[in-house]
Amino acid sequence: MKFRGASGYRTGYAGLMKHHLMKHQQIIDGIDVFIEGQGAQSIVMIHGWPDTYRLWDAQVAAFQSSYRCIRFTLPGFDISKPRRAYSLDETIRIFTDIVEQTCPGQRVILLVHDWGAGFGYQFCMRHPELVARLIGVDIGDASSPEHKRSLPAAAKLIVEAYQGWLSLAWRVGGHVGDSMSAGLARLMKHRGESRYISSAMNYPYFIRRTGAHGSYLDMRPIAPPCPMLFIYGTKKPFMFHSPQWVEQLARKPDSKVLAMPTGHWPMVEQPDAFNQSVLSWLAGSGVENSD
């Protein structure tokens, strides 16, 4: 089944789910967790800014006949929940609870993007016993010394501008902060629905810039403890990884780096190619023998 970029994200998945496979919901640590599909292995999908669990619609549709797909909206990102910031330790504890309660006794496949990658990498390194395979999308060693050195001056200015804008939108809050956030998402060619975007999603940028809520200073350098597939888009003003990092990852046994002719959201812009790449790598990486 083919999914066009935006429509696959917004509407293509709804009709399919009327007819297909197991689906249920749990509430864990106040987070709505959706479990769909069947299979011996589970894929835990974690989105970033400015998305929700809906980001992975086309992936669930493609993977659910062979894998249990587990997804949720990041803590603090759900517009229907009270606005609050979460520390790194709180976020990782929630991830741990979700994995242990939905997949008891099982190591999972972790599929992550944007801030979901930033948090997911930290979770994976702190709890390698819970992760069998890691799939990172478009975020590598972002903000590392090597990555910062690889960025041209213009890219550094862009990063400073958009992160400062989102941090300010968090401070402002309310309708104005929400409009600031949605406006930047449109500028970045985000294809999701703006009605789910709010300034509440911006707290990671506020924490990074101010050191509030425990700061992110104890984030570890990214060193995947398991085989990793890294997929990134090439049609962006700059990359979120250093050349050294991808070269090192590509040399790691059972790991792979894949460039796609997309922007920051390859799973939405080219879902068919993205899904096939993920499934092919999982089939060839021995994931079925990972437990």
Which short descriptors sum up this protein?
291 residues, alpha/beta, Rossmann fold, 8-stranded mixed beta sheet, 12 helices, 8 strands
Helix content: 40-55%
Instruction: Tell me the Rg in angstroms.
Output: 18 Å
CATH topology: Rossmann fold
Number of helices: 12
Largest β-sheet summary: 8 strands, mixed
How would you name the CATH homologous superfamily? Alpha/Beta hydrolase fold, catalytic domain
* Strand percentage: 15-25%
Number of E-state strands: 8
CATH architecture verdict:
3-Layer(aba) Sandwich
CATH class: Alpha Beta
Distance between the termini: 31 Å
- Please tell me the total number of domains: 1
- Name the helix and strand elements from N-terminus to C-terminus, one letter apiece: HHEEEHEHEHEHHHHEHEHH
What does the model show?
The structure is a single chain. The chain is of the alpha/beta class and 291 residues long. The chain has one domain: 3-Layer(aba) Sandwich (Rossmann fold). It is 41% helix and 16% strand. The chain has 12 helices and 8 strands. Helix 3 (57-63) packs across helix 12, helix 4 (88-102) crosses helix 5 and helix 7 runs antiparallel to helix 8.
List the helices and strands and how they pair.
Layout: H1 5-10, H2 12-17, E1 23-28, E2 31-37, E3 42-46, H3 57-63, E4 68-72, H4 88-102, E5 108-113, H5 115-126, E6 131-137, H6 145-150, H7 153-172, H8 174-187, H9 203-210, E7 228-233, H10 243-250, E8 256-260, H11 266-269, H12 271-284
Parallel strand pairs: 3-4, 3-5, 5-6, 6-7, 7-8
Antiparallel strand pairs: 1-2, 2-4
